[in-house]
Amino acid sequence: MLLAACAPTPTPLPTSAPSATPVLPPTATPLPTPTPLPTPTPTATPAPTLEAAAVSAAIASAQTRAAAAGVEPLCMRQHDTDLDGTGEWVGVYLYPADPPELRGFVIDGTAWHDLLPAEGDEDGGTLGEYSTCELEVNDVNADGRVEIAIFGHKGTGETLLHLFAWDGARYALLAAFEGPGGVRMENADGDLTDEVLVRLRPEGGLVWEIVYTWDGTNYAWTWDRFAWYYLDRPHAYQDDTPVHALASYYLALDDRDLPGAYGLLSPTAQAGLSYTDLAWNLNTTWVVEVGAVSLVSQSEGAATVAAQVQTVDNVGGRAMRYHFAVEWQLVDAGNGWRLERGVVDMLDQWEMPYFP
């Protein structure tokens, strides 16, 4: 009972309430799979010349090249994107269309490279529809190349993310993501490499996140989970459905809002688990995540919900990640659904070499 009251882990996903029909997440567009390249031999990149005249000349040259292409950049930044020891100019501009189309480019000396949203898509796609400059230029997936990450936004509210990398001949599109509730990059598993997090549309304060991890060739689904859409505190824990009540319980544990979590247990569950025991059971737990939530059954006043939970715990100074399958019986208490009794099974455990 104690483990079930504090357990956590991943898999398919529901969107919202009572029905746990899995929602197909916005997937990373597979796109032409980039041919794996040999990891470039690290070479000392010359320090940038900061002499004012040289800097001005470099900027003027890039501006002239952009003007020759009929482009008015929203912004430009210099970075060695092809690892040849010389910096290229990366920028974005708004292409006049209806609606407008955010597009990207790289200027390498006199060469111009378009960053297009899909292979051969000269005028049918977009990186966004607004004048924004949200660029990240870095080796974001630790594959030895420099990626160009461009974030954009659509008039319908979706956030877009497109990732490009030099493949020896062009800047290939590695992956494209679209999140109705947002897209961001985050080191979600403590491996010092960012994953891509795609969010579905929020339901109240809750939102469903899908985590994609670079597998050496593509971005692949690795985990899905409930999260808070807003970072404000305190959260209003949703208990209008069995699924929401279970998600709120584990998110309250992750928040360390132990009174909030304890209040989501039924009187019967509280009779078998004191508040003090709940607190002591969590005193070495750093992270609690809940995903793969599904409504198993529901009848008048009672429901069964299955989920997977992941926790990160401090075990003798080591960060251990645990993966559980849990199943809860919930009851309708009249003022919301409450967790009454549950079972937990350990699925996996592993040590995290780094903890963010």
Q: Brief overview, please?
A:
With 356 residues, this protein is of the alpha+beta class. Helices cover 15% and strands 40% of the residues. It is built from six helices and 16 strands.
Structure characteristics:
4-stranded antiparallel sheet, Nuclear Transport Factor 2, Chain: A, 16 strands, about 350 residues, alpha+beta, 6 helices
- In DSSP terms, counting alpha (H) and pi (I) runs of 4 or more, how many helices? 6
Largest sheet: 4 strands, antiparallel
Helical residue percent? 10-25%
Strand order in space, largest sheet? 1-2-3-4
Shape: elongated
* Global mean pLDDT: 83
User: What is the total domain count?
Assistant: 2
Distance between the termini: 30 Å
Order of helices and strands: HHEEEEEEEEEEEEHHHHEEEE
Question: Taking Cα atoms only, what radius of gyration do you get, to the nearest Å?
Answer: 24 Å
Q: Could you tell me the number of beta strands?
A: 16
Query: Helices and strands: which structural class?
Result: alpha+beta
The proportion of strand residues reads: 35-45%
Which blocks of ≥5 consecutive residues have pLDDT under 50? 7-38
3D architecture notes:
The strands form four sheets. The protein has a four-stranded antiparallel beta sheet, covered by helices on one side. The chain has 356 residues and is of the alpha+beta class. The radius of gyration is 24 Å and the shape is elongated. It is built from six helices and 16 strands. It folds into two domains: 2-22 and 234-351, Nuclear Transport Factor 2, Chain: A (Roll); 54-228, no CATH class. It is 15% helix and 40% strand. A hairpin with a 2-residue loop joins strand 3 (101-108) and strand 4. The relative contact order is 0.16.
